[in-house]
Design goal:
transferase, 2 domains, transmembrane helix, about 425 residues, PSS
Length: about 425
């Protein structure tokens, strides 16, 4: 394998060098810099695809997941580079990726007139609904469909979906993009887009769990129909693992599940705040590429986290992709904090602060009751029950049914037995 890797790297390096020798090097410094960076990234990806450590997935091919692992490293290095730039230089650096970037953009407000039926508009009374139906509606559906395939739990998906809507309510004073009508929040997002995506995802998971995973070589299948079916099934999992998070089973699992929900919500918020501070329009291809990136690396990270939680003795270390996803999410948040601290420090409305404080107190109270007070109470009741059973057995042993002690009769019985002997 190492010899194969060195051969591929040698051929790729020779090809790149041959291309640079054939053409005359342009005198454009920016163009040469971009071309050199792209060539360096390609060489690194080629090395990583063949030499990186395999992850938990083997379909459609382990090299596919190694590729995304290497892309994670490249993306994290890019974020670190952006983090160490000034705000102006960082925003203008995006022009090297797309010349149309680096320009301040107005934020769209989805609130305003929230009438479902507007009688004042005679031509189209339902114009408010049609205005909200844009390209982000199918994006919401497919996004939550894929998230369900990653998380594999209906309750966790619904909690994250509802929690993000509360976050939008809480932060709409910072980003106008979060301002939406009530029916846009709960009917279009939670019930229709997110709920339908979660439902379809759970149906897909049910089909995958019932599917027979018996693989056969492509050339051993006699019919063309069977060969085509085998090619399609190559993009399904090699085997199936059902995720049973069981957050209330132990304090460790409860904290881990809370951490997963927190990272998911933070990554969702980073999507909106990054495009706000880096001046990227929502429909830009970089925003879509970031979502595609998280779909691929997020599935591997969730499987590594579940394996680590389910069997910590076998999986002694958390997987490499999970660590990279956590690092990327944290770095994105640091970029947002550095590039626009004023927006993040806008104080929450008083009633929003009260609601969040109440929610945090309820969660902490339930945690203390479930994993400390309840366990102490159950342990005390168990000890008390054992003492009562022990006392009852002792009294039963001391009594022989006619009021005489069995312990007092035992020496006399022993003496009679000795006399007989």
């Amino acid at each position: 394998r190492r010899a194969h890797t060195l051969t591929v790297l040698f051929i790729l390096t020779c090809a790149l060098g041959y291309v640079t020798l054939l053409e005359e090097t342009p005198q454009d410094t920016a163009y040469n810099t971009k071309r050199g960076i792209v060539a360096s990234i390609l060489v690194f990806l080629c090395f990583g695809v063949t030499q990186a450590k395999d992850g938990p997935f083997s379909r459609p091919h382990p090299a596919y997941w190694r590729f995304w692992l290497c892309v994670s490293v490249v993306y994290e290095l890019f974020l670190i580079f952006i983090l160490f730039q000034t705000v102006q230089d960082g925003r203008q650096f995006m022009k090297y990726i797309d010349p149309h970037l680096g320009v301040p953009l107005p934020e769209r407000d989805y609130g305003g007139n929230c009438l479902i039926y507007d009688p004042g508009n005679g031509t189209d009374p339902f114009h408010n609904i049609w205005d909200k139906l844009d390209g982000f509606v199918p994006a919401h559906f497919f996004g939550w469909y894929l998230k369900t395939l990653m998380i594999r739990d209906w309750w966790m998906c619904m909690i994250i979906s509802v929690m993000f809507e509360f976050l939008e309510y809480s932060l709409e004073h910072q980003l106008p993009n979060f301002s939406e009508c009530w029916w846009d929040h709960w009917i279009m997002d939670v019930i229709l887009c997110n709920g339908l995506g979660i439902y379809c995802g759970m149906k897909t998971l049910s089909w995958l769990s019932l599917k027979t995973y018996k693989w056969q070589g492509l050339w051993n299948i006699p019919t063309y129909k069977g060969k085509m079916k085998r090619i399609v099934f190559q993009f399904t999992p090699y085997s199936w693992v059902k995720f049973e998070w069981k957050p209330a089973s132990s304090l460790r699992r409860w904290l881990a599940v809370c951490g997963i929900i927190f990272v998911f919500l933070l990554a969702e918020l980073n999507t909106f705040y990054l495009k706000f501070v880096l001046w990227m329009p929502p429909e830009h291809y970089l925003v879509l590429l970031r979502l595609v990136f998280f779909v691929n690396v997020g599935g591997v990270a969730m499987r590594e986290i579940y394996d680590f939680m389910d069997d910590p003795k076998f999986h002694k270390k958390l997987g490499q992709q999970a660590w990279l996803v956590a690092a990327i999410t944290a770095t994105e948040f640091l970029i947002v904090v550095k590039y626009d601290p004023y927006t993040l420090t806008l104080s929450l409305p008083f009633y929003i602060t009260q609601c969040w404080i109440l929610g945090i107190i309820l969660v902490l109270t339930w945690t203390a009751w479930r994993f400390f007070i309840r366990d102490i109470t159950l342990r005390y009741k168990e000890i008390r029950r054992q003492k009562q059973e022990h006392r009852h057995e002792k009294d039963k042993c001391l009594s022989n049914g006619d009021g005489h002690s069995a312990l007092l009769d035992e020496p006399n019985g022993n003496k009679l037995q000795e006399r007989k002997l």
